Amino acid sequence: MGPFAGAYLRVMFQFDNIQLKHLALHRVGNRHREETNFFSNALLDPHEDVEVALKRYFLRPFKKASSLYRFQHSSDLQLNEVYSYAQKIFEDPLQLLEQSRHIVEHLYNQSNHPNIKTGEVYVAYFSDLLLEDELVDAIGIFKSERKSAFLKITEYLSSLQLSRIEGIDIDQFDKGCLIADTLEEDGYRLFTVDNNNYDAQYWPYHFLNVDFVEDKHFHTMKYLELCDDFSRSFVAPQSDKREQLHFMAQAADYFQQNDAFQLNEFTERFLPDEPAQHAFSNLRTDYGLDQVSNFPISPQALKESRRLFKNRIQLDTKIQIQLDFQHPDISERFLERGFDEERGMHYYKVYFNEEL
């Protein structure tokens, strides 16, 4: 399990009135291939129509972002490079051009993977980002790597001509982060997006060095992951696949039917014997949840965790049995597992009234 697993959070933020105040544009190379960087000597001053397109390009991917992070460092937060550069920009936005060069140099120093592509780096300063009912300034760092092909139509004499050009698709950048000027002492709050994930370490760890923010969304996701792990590592070996899925169905139903998670209640209902409680407790420690026993349940995190709820029993005879997680008692009532001595094979017996 990677340290970013389950770092999901739905935050109330809006871009409706956000203003693009300053913008720097540079190009970063690949250090592994000994490519060079290109630094602009002045800030960009885009025309109004270009500015509208840029804001759409920069901000649209974050409308689906559900992960909230904070800068971190193992010894001193001030030693986190991007945090330090962002701090200087927030203190004096006129430093954007100078600090954006440092940001590109830092990004270049992390570009040691052979697959990391050369790309344009935009460093933008925004005002009026609405975050949790608070208007804040924000810094955006965006990297575009992939170029798209377009057809350009021009008039030549009495005919229309076609030519192929390459440019940036404004529907989606490759990598980006949006840093909100809030909770400075705790590493700010930021969103990050990576749409070209050839190296999972490069952008969030080596460049940004961020960690997730723990709250009800995080705890909901982590406990659901814990339940999934418990169903596979303890329930299935103790019984069978049907019981594994039955446990996950019960866990999912508990999270769907309750506003808050209560460890004691959950334990009494679904972990009746001591070995199960001990195994679950050990997993809580592995997941860093040994101090988290009660928390509000996040509906958004529950929705985003659907991938954990695998409701199929897949057999080696190419037969699949699909269970209904909306009715977790179904498998216990109408599905029976046994062993046929004559064939030397396991079987499932399904009870029903009629075929639909």
Q: Please, could you describe this protein's structure?
A:
There is one protein chain. Helix 2 (81-91) packs antiparallel against helix 3, helix 5 (216-238) runs antiparallel to helix 6 and helix 5 (216-238) crosses helix 8 (274-286). This protein is of the alpha+beta class and 356 residues long. The chain has two domains: 13-144 and 174-213, no CATH class; 217-350, no CATH class. It starts with 12 loop residues before the first strand and ends in a 6-residue tail after the last strand. It is elongated and about 80 Å long. It has ten helices and 16 strands. Strand 4 (119-131) and strand 5 form a beta hairpin. The model is unreliable at 1-11 (pLDDT under 50). The strands form six sheets. Strands 1, 2, 4, 5, 8 and 9 form a six-stranded antiparallel β-sheet that branches.
What's the structural blueprint in terms of helices and strands?
Elements: E1 13-14, E2 19-28, H1 48-59, E3 69-71, H2 81-91, H3 96-109, E4 119-131, E5 134-144, E6 148-156, E7 159-167, E8 175-180, E9 189-194, H4 202-208, E10 210-212, H5 216-238, H6 241-257, E11 260-262, H7 263-270, H8 274-286, E12 294-296, H9 299-304, E13 312-314, E14 320-322, H10 330-334, E15 335-340, E16 345-350
Antiparallel strand pairs: 1-4, 2-4, 3-10, 4-5, 5-8, 6-7, 8-9, 11-12, 13-14, 15-16
Helix pairs in contact: 2-3, 5-6, 5-8
